Amino acid sequence: MVKEYDLIVIGSGTAGSITAAKCNKSGWKVAIIDERPFGGTCALRGCDPKKVLVGITEYLDGAQRLKGSGINGDVHINWNELIQYKKGFTDDFPEIKEKGLNKQGIDTYHGHAKFIDENKLEVGKSTVKGSHILIATGASPAKLPIKGSEHFTYSDDFLEIDELPKNILFVGGGYISFEFAHIAKRAGANVQILHRGERPLEAFDKDLVEHLTDYTEKMGVHLHFETEVKEIIKKDKGYSVIGKQGKKTVEFETDMVIHGAGRTPNIDSMDLEKAGIHADKKGIVVNEFLQSTSNQNVYAAGDVAATQGKPLTPVAGMESHIVSSNLLKGNHRSMGDQVMPSSVFTLPKLASVGLSEEEASKKDINYSVNSIDTTKWFTYKRTNQSVAFAKVLIDKESDRVIGTHLLSNEADELINHFATAIQFNLSTKDLKKMLYAYPTAASDISYML
């Protein structure tokens, strides 16, 4: 028996849930399929639980920075207690999420979805048909050509381990490795990062990344750049990681090897070809309306869609809103020039929005750069932050901010003000007219312009 729906959503995270809820509210018969617990990566295995761990390490870091300035005594992280605290945010969520969907009238299916034809799916023993289908399956760790790659621990697993290993090695120099390395080091582990490129965090401002890497090494994380991992060997105790630095073979010993070398669209084994859905290495190929270019019944949103959007939860959410609007009213809405701020939740935090210096130099823009060491400013001096920098790019002709890059413990919140300025074309004169609560990090903005 084939059960028919107006809309079938594959994936229960942000990119899928918003569309499902809005179409259901408009009277459509909707189903959601997920092969993992309901809730998606961000809520269960990504940004939310990670931020819980980061939040605790912030208090530890603050206490250590201010020791002798009114705070005394030893403060340390109990890893098992921290993970149990984190589980308070994640363990009940899948059941709550699914019950909420069912209460709205949305049918839920557990299992791996495979296409049978252009609008039919097989989920376990069930067959479902959708007038429209939204693929919102997110991304998964990239497959690496490394012998012994079966010995990798993934970020999902790291967030669940009850006992922190003494020695941890991260492969890849992206935000996942850096964020988790900072957490693990502050929790007491010996940490190494191996990265095949010349510098890590390549999507962020190179000068601020250099400051962050210097700080990361000073806190005791060992960074090895231009190191390509070739093999992971399981030993009686722990692992041996074999790599190449040029022609030189290097070897590292560790108790755990964590994959932090990027993610790819989660589309394997869905039999997309049976539905005539074209995909490439970036994901489902879609038009400006997030509709498949080869199957008009199918849309894609979030990390699985081959768009210019960054792999960020707010972007996935906005794309889901766009898909629902196009489904309900016909194709009319696209992402447009959407500003996308992003942050690396190390301590200090690294944040960016708009153009980098490299990008601005390639455009026909007459711009200036305000590059400022803000370490001695009151905002950062009062909490003993040893690293705080800001870089603001301003279009000289329009007097508008075109890019901002921040490194400090307040960077993740402060970047949002600059994102607002760029999104709504505010001039620096406009920003300087704004009265911010004082003393706050935002009250420093006028001095950065």
Structural class: alpha/beta
CATH-defined topology of the largest domain: FAD/NAD(P)-binding domain
Mean pLDDT: 96
Beta strand count: 23
* Proportion of helical residues: 25-40%
Structural commentary:
This protein has 449 residues and is of the alpha/beta class. It folds into 3 domains: 2-141 and 264-329, FAD/NAD(P)-binding domain (3-Layer(bba) Sandwich); 149-261, FAD/NAD(P)-binding domain (3-Layer(bba) Sandwich); 348-448, FAD/NAD-linked reductase, C-terminal dimerisation domain (Enolase-like, domain 1). Helix content is 31%, strand content 26%. It has 14 helices and 23 strands. A hairpin with a 4-residue loop joins strand 11 (228-234) and strand 12 (239-245). Helix 1 runs parallel beside helix 9, helix 3 (47-65) packs antiparallel against helix 4 (79-90) and helix 3 crosses helix 7.
Topology overview:
Blueprint: E1 2-10, H1 14-25, E2 30-34, H2 40-44, H3 47-65, H4 79-90, H5 93-104, E3 107-110, E4 113-115, E5 120-123, E6 126-135, E7 139-141, H6 155-158, E8 167-171, H7 175-186, E9 190-194, H8 206-218, E10 222-224, E11 228-234, E12 239-245, E13 248-254, E14 256-259, E15 263-265, E16 279-280, E17 283-284, E18 298-300, H9 313-329, E19 342-344, E20 349-354, H10 357-361, E21 367-373, H11 378-381, E22 389-395, E23 400-408, H12 411-423, H13 428-433, H14 445-448
Parallel strand pairs: 1-2, 1-6, 2-3, 6-18, 8-9, 8-14, 9-10
Antiparallel strand pairs: 4-5, 5-6, 7-15, 11-12, 12-13, 16-17, 19-20, 20-23, 21-22, 22-23
